[in-house]
């Protein structure tokens, strides 16, 4: 069950403030093939990890040099239809299209039934036009929802659903970013990574049990921590994205190697948005 915390501040009032701070965990089967984050596409414009599962593909989180960002989580449900489209394409397609956030999510909403349930966040970080951010959950509102400046949490339910671990993580995230003006960028990244790797369990959680029903009952305690750990499934990628008031992007990914929880690779990317 992936988890995302983010602060959206399209018009930061203080110098060196951040327009976007995002911290995300990708939870997945350890042996599912994927590539660590890197630039891809014909002009190296898009930055993301890649899902290499045969017949699926796409990505769970990415950003491009024009300021388009998208992030995806699955919606926890008792059963999953295996013959539906892969949800990772929803992020990849947005990053490679010229459609704006709202128009893209309107199209996605019209075809939401072709996918297993999901949540999708899209953003356009563009100083000239003003930053915008939208959310669409296929189990939520019929229309994409514009996001106001603020702090948000998203896991495998609708945006800001009060799961215990989501509330706990959001509180830690809020405390960390309150210090961001006083912390060097590298220290802020480390503080956020520390939050993402918190293994404290928040069990029982009736909300998760009610949504996951019989599927989640035998493994519920494993899923109630920010960092999920089980023998073959869990948190295998941490991602931090910072976008400052000048359009400077810092993208940090810490990802598991060789399906081994003791082997990790950290990659850092920095670039300036192109308007």
UniProtKB/TrEMBL annotation:
<dbReference type="Pfam" id="PF05742">
    <property type="entry name" value="TANGO2"/>
</dbReference>
<dbReference type="GO" id="GO:0007030">
    <property type="term" value="P:Golgi organization"/>
</dbReference>
<dbReference type="GO" id="GO:0005794">
    <property type="term" value="C:Golgi apparatus"/>
</dbReference>
<dbReference type="InterPro" id="IPR008551">
    <property type="entry name" value="TANGO2"/>
</dbReference>
<dbReference type="GO" id="GO:0009306">
    <property type="term" value="P:protein secretion"/>
</dbReference>
<protein>
    <submittedName>
        <fullName>Transport and Golgi organization protein 2 homolog</fullName>
    </submittedName>
</protein>
